[in-house]
Amino acid sequence: MLYLASQSPRRRDLLAQLGLAFGLLDVDVPEQRLPGEPPDDYVRRVAREKAGAGLLAVVANKDAVVLGADTEVVLGDQVFGKPADADDAARMLRMLSGRTHRVVSSVWLVSAGREANATCVSEVRVEPLDEAMIAAYVATGDCFGKAGAYAIQGRFGAHVAHLAGSYTGVMGLPLHETARLLRGFGLLH
Asked: Is 133 helix (H, G, I), strand (E, B) or coil?
């Protein structure tokens, strides 16, 4: 049985596109970067911890396979998680304005006897945003609960000047890499 260790509606919808039945697990993993931890290592670690926490919740099911994922926006060495409030969202969007950043999305599959990981890195260039554009986007509320204070699949997609990589990875679950992992576990053909 496949389980998704996430309450993200985007991840749930993306995983459903693969046509698999899966259960949902609500895991509480602290998303705190360690001092000196490189951004990509941080994203991989958090995704692995989510999968591991999920596996502990269903340890009685010996056939359980748990998918854990994490996605973060990275500019230089700075990791942009979910904004705390509207001011934080506006701050993030100002920093991303007119620049290219990376979106790192890591996926882990874990079971009682094995684990596998795939990490996808995409580059996103945001057009220059003026204060009115930032204020209008933040006012939609679409910036909350999303790494980097934006959702590429929503209104903010109009501000993405260029994407190199995985659209679904930027959304939160890179489907190509996820499908490859699932095939490796015999869960997808």
From this structure: helix
| Interatomic CA distance for residues 163 and 100, integer angstroms | 9
The DSSP code sequence of 61-98 is -TT-EEEEEEEEEEETTEEE-S-SSHHHHHHHHHHHTT
The C-alpha atoms of residue 89 and residue 134 are separated, in whole angstroms, by: 9
Per-residue pLDDT for 7 more than 90? no
DSSP state letters, 119-178: EEEEEEEEPP--HHHHHHHHHHTTTTTSGGG--TTTGGGGGEEEEES-HHHHHT--HHHH
With 90 as the cut, is the pLDDT of residue 1 above it?
yes
Query: Rounded to two decimals, what is the model's pTM?
Result: 0.95
Q: Can you tell me whether residue 179 is helix, strand or coil?
A: helix
And the tokens for 144? Answer: 């909350």
Half-sphere exposure of 184 (CA within 13 A, CB side): 15
pLDDT in tens, 113-137: 999 999 999 999 999 999 999 999 9
Instruction: For CA atoms 64, 187, 121, 89, give the dihedral sign.
Output: negative
Q: Which domains does the chain have, with CATH numbers?
A: 2-184 (3.90.950.10)
Question: What DSSP designation does 158 have?
Answer: G
Alpha carbon 155 to its chain centroid, in Å, reads 18
- Give the residue numbers annotated as catalytic, written as ranges: 70
